[in-house]
From TrEMBL:
<dbReference type="Pfam" id="PF01370">
    <property type="entry name" value="Epimerase"/>
</dbReference>
<protein>
    <submittedName>
        <fullName>Epimerase</fullName>
    </submittedName>
</protein>
<dbReference type="InterPro" id="IPR001509">
    <property type="entry name" value="Epimerase_deHydtase"/>
</dbReference>
<feature type="domain" description="NAD-dependent epimerase/dehydratase">
    <location>
        <begin position="102"/>
        <end position="213"/>
    </location>
</feature>
<keyword id="KW-0520">NAD</keyword>
<dbReference type="InterPro" id="IPR036291">
    <property type="entry name" value="NAD(P)-bd_dom_sf"/>
</dbReference>
Length: 300
């Protein structure tokens, strides 16, 4: 029997998981929000379906036919988790033991004033988005318990990777050096997200939650300075968080200050991080940028 993964939301992280399983001979299906992206997915050998907060999958029976694993990356909205809202009953009808992975965030822990948190700690979200995530996580675990589905939650730190990293931000002229004393963020390279999810598929622990982050919670301004150094660019001027003009979304990232333990993914899933800190993670991304620039020079 061929394994089949269905992804509700084939975004930055889920797509890498799907690509790696596709390379192992798995069938892949999943959702996107528009027809143009659906055509691209189909060209890449992925069976596409349209799905959004207000748009359920039109033919969900066909979408879930033969599915052995489900990965959910669609974020919760005002009406709760959109996948459970529209298709909770459809998922409940899947065979017992079906693996379901939910991509959550470390925002479920809220602000800990720089202290370390593990999966054993109480969930105390500080903002609206964190509270929605906690509600969604609980809904997924409840669905699993009631219907015998093997649900796991992956609490992701700040995600970076190809095309989405501090080097690209600096090169685009969008980097800012916001200083909030004592503030640290945890991060995770997208490749380490993928290897953690794949490890869980191979060694499922129904009902488990996993923090997915690297070993080095660091001040955000340090990452910008390091990226500027790699590129030979002067770092932007320091800005005091208390007076910096930030959008509500940007400011919300500074609400929480904590260090996140990743011991469980190492001990229980055997994960060995490819990029244990942002310095290791930025190096191959820097090499990719150099390769792109050299390629353009050759074309010119």
């Amino acid at each position: 029997m061929t394994n089949k993964l269905f992804c509700f939301g084939l975004g930055f992280s889920a797509r890498l998981v799907a690509n790696q399983l596709q390379g192992e001979g798995w069938k892949i299906a999943g959702t996107t929000r528009n027809a143009d992206k659906a055509k691209q997915l189909e060209a890449d050998g992925i069976e596409p379906f349209i799905f959004g907060d207000d748009q359920p999958v039109a033919d969900i029976k066909t979408a879930l036919r033969g599915v052995t694993h489900v990965l959910v990356s669609a974020p919760p909205g005002g009406q709760g988790d959109p996948v459970i809202h529209h298709h909770g009953n459809d998922l409940a009808a899947l065979p017992e033991g079906t693996w379901i992975g939910y991509l959550s965030t470390t925002g479920v822990y809220g602000d800990r004033d720089g202290a370390e948190v593990s999966e054993e700690d109480e969930l105390l979200p500080s903002g609206k988005r964190g509270r929605r995530r906690v509600t969604a996580e609980k809904a997924w675990f409840d669905l699993g318990r009631r219907h015998g589905l093997c649900v796991q939650s992956f609490r992701l730190a700040g995600i970076y990777g190809p095309g989405r990293n501090a080097l690209e931000t600096v090169r685009a002229g969008r980097a800012r050096r916001i200083i909030k004393p004592g503030q640290v963020f945890s991060r995770i390279h997208v490749e380490d997200i993928a290897q953690t999810v794949l490890a869980s598929i191979k060694r499922p622990d129904c009902g488990a939650a996993y923090n997915v982050c690297d070993d080095d919670a660091a001040p955000p301004q340090d990452v910008i300075v390091y990226a500027c150094g790699m590129l030979g660019i002067d770092p932007p001027a320091e800005e005091d968080f208390a007076t910096a003009r930030l959008s509500p979304m940007a400011a919300s990232f500074y609400e929480d200050n904590k260090r996140v333990s990743n011991a469980r993914i190492k001990e229980e899933l055997g994960v060995k991080l490819r990029y244990p800190d942002y310095r290791a993670g930025l190096m191959p991304l820097y090499d990719e940028i150099l390769a792109r620039l050299e390629s353009r020079e050759e074309i010119d």
